[in-house]
# Entry
Amino acid sequence: MRNIILFGAPGAGKGTQSAIIREKFDFAYISTGEILRSEIKNGTQLGKQAEEIINRGELVSDSIIVGMIQSFIEKNNGKDLLLDGFPRTVKQAEALDGILKELNRGEAKVVELAVDKDVLMQRLLKRAEIEGRKDDNEQTIRERFNQYDKKTAAVADYYKQKGGYISIDGQNGTPEQISVKLIEVLEKL
Ligand code: ADP
# Structure
């Protein structure tokens, strides 16, 4: 069973690429950000806890996120997995390894969508106009980049050391052109 992590900074195109590749491959797909946004919309306990943190651009606690992922993987064991927005800290990556090992699923493989920061900022500000996400304002975006540098970039080093880390250009070309490269990589994993 494949365990694919789609990795990249905020605005790198993880959600967009996930939607395209899910038409081609049969993945059990989870986006931690999407789940949190739906919890906020539904006014759940978790949503109430997460809302202010997300609007500040900070990360939700590892224990909440790991709990969410663990139950998703257990429910979907037997299927290939596509993880979007997780893991975002080394703690989360270590917890994921434990879950995969427990279920005999083999190692996780990371595919990074590499995009320069100035391009990311432009994309997110443009998305703000279209989608109106509360965390897509300049101040919050800066904090999300800061959290990425402080906590999430280390996840890339973690997987580079373990092996199973591939980076593709997520910046140049249309989403469709980028997805062609991504699909090529996924077919070999
Ligand atoms: P983006 O990658 O564009 O920032 P996401 O939808 O993946 O958007 O995440 C939005 C927000 O949800 C993050 O800024 C963070 O507050 C929270 N979040 C999502 N995934 C995680 C995670 N794995 N760990 C902690 N917080 C998370």
About this structure: Residues 138-162 form the longest helix (25 residues). Residues 10-11, 32-33, 36, 53-54, 57-60, 65, 85-86, 88, 92, 135, 144 surround adenosine-5'-diphosphate (CB under 6 Å).
